[in-house]
Amino acid sequence: MALLNNYIDNLTQTTLMAALLTGILSILGYLSATFLLLKDLFKAKTRRPFLIIAWIAVSLHAINIALVTDKHQGFNFSFFSTASLISLSIAILLLIAVLDKPVEKLGIVIFPLASLMLGLEIAMPEASFTTVSYSWQMSTHILTSIMAFSLLNIAALQAALLAIQDQQLRSHHPRKLIRSLPPLQAMESLLFQMIGYGLLFLSASLLTGFIFIEDLFAQHLVHKTVLSILAWIIFSCLLIGRSRYGWRGNTAIQWTLIGFILLLLAYFGSKLVLELILKKH
């Protein structure tokens, strides 16, 4: 029995060391990919070197999460762990999008954010572990929620970049970063594509929530439900307005950012207050 306990302890320590190593290497990979994007920002082709390093970084990030989850026999749904998982999802979706869309410059924001979330998760291991085993129905709801937030996060970053691009072009003195972006019309098309995909997953998230969660308007869920529904209405109206009335420019940018802020508050508002301010888990 003593030998078995010894073996388990050694295995646990090895897993923790492997998780720490993959986490640190992933952070370095994210920062290296960001550096390459910044270095080659104004060149015609920047994809290949940064793509390889970025894919290595997200792979190591995924391995880190898998090791920690396996060690604790379940995923830790604390604030920083959830933020780390979502930032990983956003980075992966961006890398997939880069294969056929000119959105690689969003990595300048997304990769440092992913490294920050992973770093905070590693630096704060004392957070309590809410390791609950979910049914396939609940897992489907959680997965679609993460996909919706990740896609609409990319859309919000795209909207912010579009706002800067529009302002710079109106000033007739665009900086090199803005001149390196695709044309304004192409940027708007990309924005609405991201919103469309994100809305699809948000609809699935709300639908699975209404079907599989017993009381979606319970006290601890009511704000998430209401804010998510409001975000869904805003994004739906935006797509309808684009299709029927040709909404674009500042209208599209403003409503995209408002919708995402509502979704951000729905997903992270309560976790931020309860776990980091009130110290409740």
Task: Outline the structure in words.
With 281 residues, this protein is mostly helical. The chain has two domains: 133 residues; 146 residues, no CATH class. The chain is 79% helix and 0% strand. The chain has nine helices and no strands. The protein is flat. 34% of the residues are buried. The mean pLDDT is 80.
Summed up, the domain count is 2
Overall average residue pLDDT: 80
Q: Which percent range fits the helix content?
A: over 70%
Question: Span between N and C termini?
Answer: 35 Å
Order of helices and strands: HHHHHHHHH
- Taking Cα atoms only, what radius of gyration do you get, to the nearest Å? 20 Å
Largest sheet: none
The number of E-state strands comes to 0
Helix/strand structural class: mainly alpha
Number of helices: 9
Dominant shape: flat
Strand content bin = under 5%
**In terms of per-residue confidence, which ranges show pLDDT below 50 for 5 or more consecutive residues?**
none
Protein name: Cytochrome C assembly protein
Keywords: Membrane, Transmembrane, Transmembrane helix
Pfam families: Cytochrom_C_asm
Organism: sediment metagenome
Describe the secondary-structure layout:
Blueprint: H1 2-39, H2 47-71, H3 79-98, H4 107-123, H5 136-170, H6 176-179, H7 184-212, H8 222-245, H9 249-277
Helix pairs in contact: 1-2, 1-4, 2-3, 3-4, 3-5, 5-7, 5-9, 7-8, 8-9
